[in-house]
Amino acid sequence: MRCIRPILVALVSLATVSVPVHGFSLWPFRKAPAVEPSPETAIDGVKNPSSVPRATAPAVETPSVERLEKLAKEGSSGAQLALGKIYYDGQAGVKKDPKKAAALFRQAAEQGNARALFNYGVCLDGGIGVAKDAQEAMAYYRRAADLGVSEAQLNLAIMLEERGAYAEALTYYRRLAEESSHLGAMRKVADLLLNGKAGARQPAEAVRYLRSAAERGDSRAQVRLADCYQRGEGVRSDLREMFVLLTLAAQDGDAEAQAKLAYCYAKGMGTAPNSDIAFAWYQRSAEAGYAPGQVALGNCYLQGQGVERDPVKAAEWFRRAAEQADSMGEFSLAVAYELGRGVTADAAEAVRWYRRAAEQGYVLAQYNLGVACLEGRGGPQDLAEAARWFAAAAQQGSPEALLALGKCLLNGQGLAADRERARECFRRAAEMGLPAASEALRTHFGEP
Where are the beta strands (DSSP E) in 262-347? Predict the structure, then answer.
């Protein structure tokens, strides 16, 4: 008689994140958003990253519930596990009973059954048939993970990462990657090796994991590996190789890759420039819902690149990105309202969208919002708020914001007057090459 070893759903989906791009200021894209699991991949709020319950054996090989009950009472961990699965799912004419399922999983787990250890961890994790207890769930996951249960390794790694235990999370992600060739785990290992949260950064080792996943056709890994080639991290910079990887991922439907590939065609990175092809890839990315691609497509319509100029369509795409809380989309839509470009001019709407982008740290929006508050555009004048937004943008290195903040400090607008701080703001902006700041130093402080 064959022993049935069901696998329950696991905890959470492995986020499809990409490593942020550094060192190339014109690369305008960020990570693609994590994809939430569909209702078909979630049970009682416990999400499934990669697996589904294993199928039972054919009916002729499956013992009856009565037989399993007898074997379970006799202490068979395999029977306890199989019977627990039946009660969990409500199979074989048995009504669902999460409490019975959890109790049976625990009985089998106490005998060291690896699958039962994982299953009982899931019950504790999701509060299924037992009181929810994340710490106890982690203990069961750890025992199952150390016995080689890949789903337990994944869930434990995710929970450790969520709690900031990055080094230990890396250990389990690495085990999952090495022992099960889990593509998501390979990407997570690369993330932790690149961002340095788990210890010293190891870009070359990260590239090894990304390459392994990319060679298996994983489009997310292909995009991240392309990023490494673009900025020369862990590998020698190679724009042609970057272009090839993005092409593979884009053709596989990855929206972030499509937007980045479009940018390559727009700027001639790794290939000859071609605005028509760039537009086509931006369009595919935008229609797939990738917000940065929507902003880029809006800019194509705004500037007439690869398509006839159409400010109305540009504003429509900016709005679609803004409604996803994309800061570039919010800023672009605010500018459209301020200038009346593709929409009816509306200063109050412009300020509203500037504020949303500014609150996300978008430096251009912070500066523009400061100007609006200073001049009373789209609302009452508020000098104190203007100074706050200029200061926020200045902290991010905006020379225009430094100049504006210096003027506030010089004149006591929105904050106490302070000539020395004003001088420092003017000097920093002048060092960044802003002519107006140099003029302010000459006019107010007699500096050459």
Answer: none
